[in-house]
Amino acid sequence: MIRTFRFWLLAILAISFAACGKEKSVDSTDGERSGVFSMKIDGKQWIADEVSAAITADGYLVISGQSASKISFSIKLKADKPGKYQLDPSTKDDFVGIMIDQSGATTIPYGTGFGNDPNNAGGIVEITEIDNTSKILSGKFQLKVLSADGSNKVLTLTEGLIENLSFASSNNPGGPGNPGTGSGTFAAKVNGTAFPVSIVSGTSGFGLLSITALSGGGNTLLLSMPAAITAGTYNLAGSLGYIAAYSEGITQYQTVVSGELIITEHNTATKTIKGTFNFKVKKNATDNFDITEGSFSVTYVEVQVP
Fold it and tell me: Are residues 229 and 139 located together in one domain of the fold?
């Protein structure tokens, strides 16, 4: 069992830069204004400096924002029309809010899908307008998010505002059981049980290409490889430049006992990569997590972080 900042850095990059449309500054210099995505976190104002939104071909609305204060927040709804939507641990596969706080010494994820008590995690997101002609959406939300570090800390998100936010429409469906975010498809089994993908995304940066799948309950599967990887078969056990990891909450398991990554296609011009994988990671001294029947087809974004 390993707790590493690097693992969550890669996961955060993939989630924050989820390829549901290239992020635009709320004060964009390219003549387009993406809109406003803001809230108060326990009474303290948060405003996204970078924001993106999309409605996928299979009817999921995904909104992601990040602030200069190193806090990112994403909402995913099974919704392509205005309405009020309930978020809580029981709806985490289709309706979820995830916040990742990098502002302190420790990176902490919070979510509406963590735990089992709707009094500690959940709330309402109301989408008041979706204009498919001008590609503008608006809404509001009030939520509670629970930490995934076992401390049971609850943050209250009030005065949530989605105002005149530009969105893209995706023609990239997630496939059965995998709603995706417009960035591709991902599937795997963990100890024989299908991993319930909520958000899947890919990023290329720091010389690494990373693919992340996040469940509504906060569990994560991560694959990281050299950014210039080509079609071929690669050993995931102890190979320099390769990371295969599984997390439950903020507990990460990335000591690979055995594993194989097969890249079937990598097109750097279109930024698409396809492949299959399987690996085992140590859970403790005697047990492993067995990740099998893994596959992905992802369009990734290139990111630069100061």
Answer: no
